[in-house]
Inverse folding.
């Protein structure tokens, strides 16, 4: 029981820290069109993903996914955004799931992690109040569904099929 309380407390503190940071940065970050495009297959490179470390605080590991064949051809793909932050324990739990989905779904669905502490404009654009949040977008960037909290890989894949983001094979 104590472990669950600690995780819940850490999550609440991380959320508060992100919200404070977003509020402080809101006036400083003003992209020309309000926010960068992230829904299309040519989305900006993913932010550093949170990783677990047994020797201390969370570390960042840069993830530079190679362009998918669809991105190179200009074809739009459905997208799943993982909006979280480095140091958030539930976000750290999601990191290997997101990495696996990026590889498994390359060329079918764009999967991207964005650190809302580094990209507060995305937290504002998608009205993120709790992290991690997964936002599912169609190929035109229209939001189809969102989930808040940890989301297992099998559940994500099932939801993508349900939403028509993945074609049955």
């Amino acid at each position: 029981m104590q472990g669950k309380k600690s995780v819940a407390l850490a999550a609440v503190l991380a959320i508060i820290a992100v919200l404070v940071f977003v509020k402080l940065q809101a006036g400083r970050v003003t992209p020309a069109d309000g926010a960068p495009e992230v829904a299309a297959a040519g989305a900006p490179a993913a932010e550093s993903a949170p990783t677990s470390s047994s020797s201390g605080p969370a570390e960042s590991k840069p993830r530079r996914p190679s362009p998918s064949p669809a991105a190179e051809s200009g074809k739009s793909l459905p997208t799943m955004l993982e909006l979280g932050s480095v140091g958030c324990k539930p976000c750290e739990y999601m990191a290997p799931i997101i990495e696996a989905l990026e590889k498994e779904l390359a060329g079918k669905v764009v999967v991207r992690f964005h650190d809302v502490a580094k990209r507060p404009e995305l937290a504002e654009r998608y009205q993120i109040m709790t992290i991690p949040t997964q936002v599912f977008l169609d190929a035109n960037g229209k939001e189809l569904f969102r989930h808040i909290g940890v989301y297992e890989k099998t559940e994500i894949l099932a939801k993508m099929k349900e939403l028509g983001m993945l074609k049955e094979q």
Summary: Residues 2-163 form a domain with the Glutaredoxin fold (CATH 3.40.30.10).
